[in-house]
Write the structure tokens for this entry.
Amino acid sequence: MKHIITALVENKPGVLARIVGLVSGRGYNIETLNVGPTQDPDTSKMTLVVPGDEQVLEQVLHQVSKLVDVIEVVDVTRRRHLNRELILVEVATTRHSRAQVLELATLFKARVAAVGEKSITLEMVGDRSSVEDFLRLLKPYEITDISRSGLIAVARGETA
Amino acid sequence: MNARNQKKPSRRTPARPTAKPAVAAPAANLRSGAQCVVDGLVENGAEVVFGYPGGMILDVFNLIGAAPIHFILPRHEQGAVHAADGYARASGKVGVCLVTSGPGATNTVTGLATANMDGIPLVCISGQVPLHMIGNDAFQEADILGITRPITKHNFLVRSADDIPLVMAEAFYIASTGKPGPVVVDIPKDVQRQMTAARRPEAISIRSYNPDVRTDLAQVAKLAEAINKAQRPVLYAGGGVISGNAAPELLELARRADIPVTTTLMGLGAFPETDPLALRMVGMHGSFAANNAVQQCDLLISVGARFDDRVTGRKADFATHATVAHIDIDRSAIGKNIRTHLPVLGYAKPVLQALLPQVKARKHPAWHARIAAWKKEHPAFTYPTSDKALMPQYVIEQIDKVSKGEATIVTDVGQHQMWSAHFFRYTRPRSFLSSGGLGTMGFGLPAAIGAQLACPDRLVVAIVGDGGIQMNAQELVVAVEHHLPVKVVIINNGYLGMVRQWQEIFYQRNYAAVVLGRNERMPVERIATQRKPEYLPDFMKLAEAHGARGTRVTRSAEVAPALREAFASPQPWVIECIVEHGANVLPMVPPGASLSEMICKFA
């Protein structure tokens, strides 16, 4: 199962290395990773997507939360939460296929970021499943480049 | 790592040797970064510092002589860290070392990892190349922060002298609280030379690090209920009882509820092994009674232990009948190796103190009868006696006898370490110091020097193998130089004995690369041209060369007189015992087997 983990950490050099080292040291691949400052400039929030066995991952999370510079770690997959990802995807198009790609873009509320003679670049924001769906449906067309921001997530209160 | 406080001027001022603190202060209040380091050591309670100088730490060394600090110069940085570690284990205080950049810092790595595995509080200060040269492959530059990240509790790179007083205080605080551990403070040379008006903060509070864990009283109540209901309880005590100073509470709990107690290697001394409730050590080389009691108990109460693989054997078959309770200060240790039914987060001492009034006085005669039968079947511990050869186990027994059980034993790693665990009965905390988790050969002698400095009036005996002593033998000089009466008992079997034992049992007696001091496998043509010395090395000459006394013992009858003479002397003394080379450590649970599958005797 894929876990979405958020970590609130001190905004200092080396914190990212500590967390990544702990997770990767156990042989877990980090699928996506996003880091940014929070409303408090002294802290950063990281969002990691890590596929892995529940029990072992829980152990890793305990070890991450033990790190001196880590304030809080949450596996938001187990909670009510919102997640989003931004992707920029360049698709090779012909005159024939462009209309079909644009139709898909409309369905997924993707924006056209750039258009060239032989390609179109789309910008799309969505939660994890809609991004996955969009990319799956784009597969028949030739994706020539892609960049993903990595998933970001916030946990929601019990009564929202 | 930078200042914690965003408002500090250091954050905004580019760190240059010429950078002036933004805080206006009279010149008289300014101190150099190096002075802040030395003052920080004193302010945070360092009395003994083990260090080795070099270019990038010279500014600190320049001031160390004037400070009220007992400075020790080991002959290798690894020796410095192990000595600081031994000092910390023996005293419960933070061990301190001071080294230069590059090779000085990288030589500390094994010692830091050793301390990290066993939860020993250390602060290691390393010099670093100037800030503007970091990352340039400068002379004697090493990324010690990156190298030590996975083997320390925490580490700091100090980028401004303004941060030094705070970082020094935080380093000692982090090292000594929660589950203790080693902390590295890396200080570039230009930062040591900067001037600052910064002072030590009044109090330390780290938002992301809160070691003041409140004892979980609800869980304590559940545990008390489980203890009051249990028919076959066992207490399993680890190093956390010793570092948490909880041995008196453990003894009280065991006696009140009539619970037998086993300890891990790290827990030796947490419970008096002379007590009738003592099961002795558990695990791979544990006693028959301890391992069986753990396997058959209905309640296993772990106090400050972490269910290491050397303790549990095959996990699936470990204590399958038991409700497992785990008292630990380290949340990540609970449930890591074994499923825990009753986790209790907290320090051992307050948890046991909260537990005691809720525990009923009870007796378990049936359970103790079963344990007595196991103790009778395979007493802990025995060994085959020999008329001809000197048995290594006999030497350890004699150390116990001659010292009247009062010695502080410091071991290296291998067979002699297990025999030291078996044949000396530990009755007080901090009397058995050993590299448990990492299993570091070369630990024994420098750690014994540190322990002797921590306990000047105690008899400190390093029990080492002929392999391990050669890894840090140079430190013998330090004992002589500082008139430390450390005794070094070398259990010399001419082998890397524990590896030889594994090769005998698991590798069809293919003794590869384990023969020490005898050239049995040397090609014939080389034997013909080389005269073989009788002893290789000659440890008596080694002792003499370092200025220590030495006695070589080859027969059983010589052991006690040699020990008596050495123990009575104020001088460092090497007692080399030429022992039976084929002796094995028994009983033994083969790696990967269940605790119920002990080998108690070889056919």
The mean pLDDT of chain A is 92.
